[in-house]
């Protein structure tokens, strides 16, 4: 028996839908508004059975971009599995359960599964709100793998931050899957040559998240690239390991100071902010800031996998990951 999401309308069908085919406004009851922004609103709702879900009302271009991404993503998954397989349990994107037009609502809607804790919640559960190095690397390895998959589909996320990664409630409580969400700003990868024929969602991103956005995105009229997502991912990692970011106390409007603080992270040996961040992760910032070409994500993944494998097998403390001088000692103890 096929699931509800496998019977979703196509983007063409929802664009051509007639008024008398609109979904009743009573199908979902909104409990509270979670967030409002340039692209619409995100809300907690319940269906008629009382099950909690997330419903977003999105402007036309953002809605169309996200549904088209989902269609391509599901098609890609099914090319590797049986077309009748239930992909929802292992889908690393937030599962879309319903979407379309709703009576009395100007914007189109998308209904998603309600996910569990995000990375900020996870961080706060640790002592001093600092994730242990090995666990942090395991989390970040999962996150960058999903980001890289998104890039390979031809899209950039543009809102990478701790709340964009959530755990899906699972029967496997030891290793629940990490899911990428918050796709409302997502768009196709473009450059100057292809930008003229793209939707406005590609060009409009007025509310920048200065806490996690790349230095490139603090400059007006710049195109968003896969490297920008990776740089944001790096800042998420620093937050997990250190419990805070060095520019948190700088006013959001002070672009110059925020940029200087982000650039200072390149000084991996002299920047005193680095205390708990593993050496292997600190070194990534050098490649990230080169920006001469697309970052080789496979190199980052391989480095993390080698470190996780090596130190998981050695009878040593996580602190030995912090300094290069301790790596040889760790090998001897192993």
Q: Residue-averaged pLDDT, rounded?
A: 83
Structural category: alpha+beta
Q: How much strand?
A: 5-15%
**N-to-C SSE series?**
HEEEHEEHHEEEEHHHHHHH
Describe this structure in words.
The chain is of the alpha+beta class and 334 residues long. The protein folds into two domains: 28-113, Phosphorylase Kinase, domain 1 (2-Layer Sandwich); 119-333, Transferase(Phosphotransferase), domain 1, CATH 1.10.510.10. The chain is 35% helix and 13% strand. The chain has eleven helices and nine strands. The chain has a five-stranded antiparallel beta sheet. β2 and β3 (52-58) form a beta hairpin. α4 (133-152) runs antiparallel to α10 (297-313). The longest helix is centred in the N-terminal third of the chain and has 21 residues, at 60-80. It is globular. Mean pLDDT is 83; it is low at 1-6, 14-20 and 325-334. This is Protein kinase domain-containing protein.
Short synopsis of the structure:
The protein is α+β, with helices and mostly antiparallel strands. The chain is built from eleven helices and nine strands.
Characteristics:
single chain, 334 residues, alpha+beta, Phosphorylase Kinase, domain 1, Transferase(Phosphotransferase), domain 1, five-stranded antiparallel beta sheet, two-stranded antiparallel sheet, 11 helices, 9 strands, disordered N terminus, Kinase-like_dom_sf, ATP binding, Prot_kinase_dom, CK1_Ser-Thr_kinase, protein kinase activity
């Amino acid at each position: 028996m096929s699931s509800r999401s496998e019977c979703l309308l196509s983007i063409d069908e929802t664009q051509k839908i007639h008024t008398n085919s609109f979904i009743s406004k009573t199908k979902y009851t909104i409990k509270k508004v979670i967030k409002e922004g340039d692209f619409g609103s995100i809300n907690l709702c319940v269906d008629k059975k009382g099950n909690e879900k997330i419903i977003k009302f999105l402007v036309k271009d953002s809605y169309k971009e996200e549904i088209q991404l989902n269609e391509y993503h599901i098609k890609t998954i099914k090319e590797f599995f049986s077309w009748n397989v239930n992909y929802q349990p292992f889908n690393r994107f937030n599962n879309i359960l319903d979407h379309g037009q709703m009576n009395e609502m100007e914007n189109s809607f998308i209904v998603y599964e309600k996910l569990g804790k995000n990375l900020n919640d996870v961080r706060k559960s640790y002592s001093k709100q600092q994730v242990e190095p090995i666990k942090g690397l395991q989390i970040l390895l999962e996150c960058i793998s999903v980001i890289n998959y998104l890039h390979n589909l031809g899209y950039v996320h543009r809102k990478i931050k701790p709340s964009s990664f959530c755990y899906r409630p699972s029967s496997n409580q030891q290793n629940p899957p990490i899911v990428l969400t918050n796709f409302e700003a997502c768009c196709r990868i473009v450059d100057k040559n292809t930008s003229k024929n793209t939707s406005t969602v590609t060009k409009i991103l007025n509310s920048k998240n200065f806490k996690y956005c790349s230095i490139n995105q603090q400059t007006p009229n710049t195109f968003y690239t896969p490297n920008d997502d990776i740089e944001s991912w790096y800042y998420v990692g620093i937050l997990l390991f250190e419990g805070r970011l060095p520019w948190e106390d700088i006013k959001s409007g002070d672009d110059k100071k925020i940029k200087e603080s982000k650039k200072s992270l390149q000084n991996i040996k002299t920047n005193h902010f680095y205390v708990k961040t593993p050496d292997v992760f600190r070194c990534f910032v050098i490649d990230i800031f080169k920006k001469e070409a697309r970052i080789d994500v496979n190199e980052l993944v391989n480095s993390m996998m080698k470190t996780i494998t090596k130190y998981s097998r050695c009878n040593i403390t996580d602190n030995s990951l912090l300094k290069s001088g301790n790596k040889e000692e760790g090998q001897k103890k192993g």
